[in-house]
Amino acid sequence: MMQLYFKHRLSLWLIAIGVFCLGMVSCDNNDDGEVEQSVTLSVESAVDMGIGDKILVRPIFEPVSEPRRSYTWKSSDSSLVDIFVNHDKSSIITALRNGSTTVEFSSNDGAVSTSFEIHVETVGGDDGILKVLAIGNSFSEDAVENNLYELARAEGVTMVIGNLYIGGASLERHWNNAQSNATAYNYRKISTDGNKTRTPGASIEMAILDENWDYISFQQVSGHSGEYDTYITPLTGLLEYAKEKATNTETGYILHQTWAYAQNSTHADFPRYDRDQEQMYQAIMETVSRIENEFEFDLVIPSGTAIQNGRNTLVGDYFNRDGYHLDMGIGRYTAACTWFEALTGINVTGNAYAPESVSGIQKEIAQHSAHAAILQPYAVTVLEDYQPEEEEEEEVPSGAAIYINLGTRTAPVWNTLDNHVEGTSIEDLKNSDDEFTGISVTITQRFNGINTGGPNTTDTGNWTIPGEVSSQSYFGNAKGVWENMEITQSQLTLSGLDTGKTYKFCFFGARSGVSDNRETRYTVSGANEEAVSLQTAGNSSETACTDEISPDAQGKIVIDITAGDNNNNGNGFFYLNAMQIIPVEE
Prior knowledge:
Helix 7 links the parallel strand 16 and strand 17. It is built from eleven helices and 31 strands. It has 586 residues and is an alpha+beta fold. The two termini are 55 Å apart. The strands form seven sheets. Strands 14-13-12-11-15-16-17 form a seven-stranded mixed beta sheet, sandwiched between helices. The radius of gyration is 29 Å and the shape is globular.
């Protein structure tokens, strides 16, 4: 379906007019006395194609019209083109990737053979650059600002990506802003060299005029994404406005199909769908399908179906960081894979790029979830190769530590709590052996904010903390107001712990460049309780660790973080950069 939408091609179907002889090949008489036979093809000796283009090639036999032998089509590089052979021995050839290949048509006995060259060009407009502008919100931020550029670069596709961002913006708000030419947006842009810029105070008109966009996309705010009536008036106006302002007469228009909330989401709009993920997903599918047909969009990007495909694998419902936004790993990566294949026509499965936060199996699941969504955009595809094992799950090896990062940067084997506010969670923590543990962590009392003044290098003995983790922390202020808030205590809650096991906890907190006492106390409470303290000012080597803590009867442990008794900072600043959970061998 994507290929029918793809623009900027001389023609989607290229059937050469006229017959060009690529060399008349003579054959010996057949044993039954038939005349000699030769073959030519209905194309020139070299054909230029764009990714996603198709060409119909017919063999022409002389002096008889029917082939007297068995014949085979083949390409010197099968990764560049796909060849579908029809009953009449003609073939439909689809360009898949950049490069050049020789396509040969020959008899199986080797007596008759002819060939031609195909050159597949870079995806993009007339300048060879694929330019995409999203008019959206945080859901477009999740989808296009992370991983999409890198996926394209891995396939030799040059891109410019723009995102007009207002958090929680609906189609109605975008339409109102267009009518008033409101400078209300943060215009985020990724240039051809991967450089990212942000321009506050931008308008829709300014962004549209900034490039000769190949595509401009629209999406509804998540809470209304399954409500048909909320689309009609604003989308009618926005499409007319964009077409009037666009500098490229061949700009294509995209409808971004967003995703349903996680089943445990606490989003205020989830009751619109009876707090039922499947109901929300079906409402989005019905609405977007209807809007696509009525407004004749050039392309629909089925991110919602891709995420739902992934949820129906062994990963489960763990694609979100807060119940509705995509997480920094497989969630955002899956959406970007979907955008990449939809825009370029290149099968994303096998793409070499994945961020470090995505494991090998997650990469495969994300790519196949996206590819299946492109093929079937309005229904879930069950990916048989990625279903959970039916037999009893293996136990997590004893002693395999779990590392939790309090900050926005990512690092291999670290689980990143990428926001400091209440409700931020990771549903299924991985241990250092890259195995899911079934343990979840949630910020149940928020921190004030993020501090980026931690050390870039540490010496914490056997516990190696990378600079991406140690240089950032979440902080609170127990003794006074700071930035209009007084956060006397922050809190993490762990659930899904094995009530038959005990766990040790180690904490690292650090704030470089200060010399006062900023002692931080970490109190760990389950069936038993222990408090440990750490002087975090100027720290780069010390950690604070508990003895064994047992979960409560519900498999939970609560960690309270606040200023220690010796903290003499006027604001009572306290910090947590990283923590380690160690299951104790039985």
